[in-house]
Amino acid sequence: MIFSSPTISGILFQLGPVTVRYYGLMIALGALAAIACASSMANRRGLDDQKLVNCALSSFIGAIIGARLYYVALSWSNYANNLADIVATWHGGMSLHGGIIGAFIGCLIYCKVTKTKFWPFCDVITTSVPLAQSIGRWGNFFNSEAFGKPVGDDFPLKLFIPIDRRPMEFHSSNYFHPTFLYEAVWDLGLFLLLYFVLANRLKNYDGMAFFVYIAIYSVGRLLIEPIRSDSIMAGTIPFPMIASGVGLALGIVGAAIAYARGRRGKGLSTKPEASSGET
């Protein structure tokens, strides 16, 4: 099966000075789908739906900022002499690890400001985050980025990249691993697992859904990252593999703590505790 990277410019349409790109559209669609799913779960759990949506929007803003700043920090040499490019997110250059950190901070800030208990909202939002990531990965497809290393003509699933969009060292190769698709499928599977299978089983363990997500997402990145062609390197190791290793350890330890505290009838410590945000 062959995928062909689009030869289009990445622009969906232009309306005066406003340019709508496929990359941004995929991110927006992913966010809307995730917020809708999280809102539905919040209603079923008796949480304040409006607060949940506001918290999710705060997380989304944090995710965009975190994803961009994380990427820029790791690729600073590309931006040091042209600071205006830092805000040019339509060219790509977003890190999902940075997005996760930013989303967590955005959710935490909202809950602190509104005096809402953090973990119930964080866990509900987390169950839908992989759906947003799965849809958003298709933005990489339209940008002809986040593809993998070359594969042979007989490889069963391959992505054709036009020569003008290949790195110089791969000009002689036609087909590549569709790593954006691998991760989109992994994230979709993680969403189905968290949202439809584990959510109700984990709801009495504050923070468990979040840490399970971190652990399983990290496993996926550890499996896929070695065949990426565009990873930012830390010496000879792709930096996302280091981040994913840390994420896996954090997820396992955090889930163990959440489970132990849940068994004792305690939630993970969040402040303030005065309001749970429930109706």
Which SSEs are present, and which pair or pack?
Elements lengths: L1 E3 L6 E5 L2 E4 H23 L4 H26 L21 H18 L4 H25 L15 E3 L14 E2 L2 H24 L5 H17 L8 E2 L2 E2 H25 L16
Parallel strand pairs: 1-4
Antiparallel strand pairs: 2-3, 4-5, 6-7
General description of the model:
With 279 residues, this protein is mainly alpha-helical. It has one domain. It has helices at 22-44, 49-74, 96-113, 118-142, 179-202, 208-224, 239-263, and strands at residues 2-4, 11-15, 18-21, 158-160, 175-176, 233-234, 237-238. It has a 3-stranded mixed beta sheet, with no helix packed on it. Helix 6 (208-224) runs antiparallel to helix 7 (239-263).
Rounded to the nearest angstrom, the distance between the terminal CA atoms is 50 Å
List the quaternary state of the chains: single chain
Structural class: mainly alpha
What amount of the residues lies in strands? 5-15%
Work out the helicity level: 55-70%
The unreliable regions are: 272-279
Number of strands: 7
Number of domains: 1
Mean pLDDT: 91
Strands of the largest sheet, in order across it?
A: 1-4-5
**Helix and strand pattern:** EEEHHHHEEHHEEH
General form: globular
Radius of gyration, taken over Cα atoms and rounded to an integer in Å: 20 Å
Short description:
This protein is mainly alpha-helical. It has seven helices and seven strands, in the order βββααααββααββα.
Keywords summarizing the entry:
single chain; 279 residues; 3-stranded mixed beta sheet; two-stranded antiparallel ribbon; 7 helices; 7 strands; globular
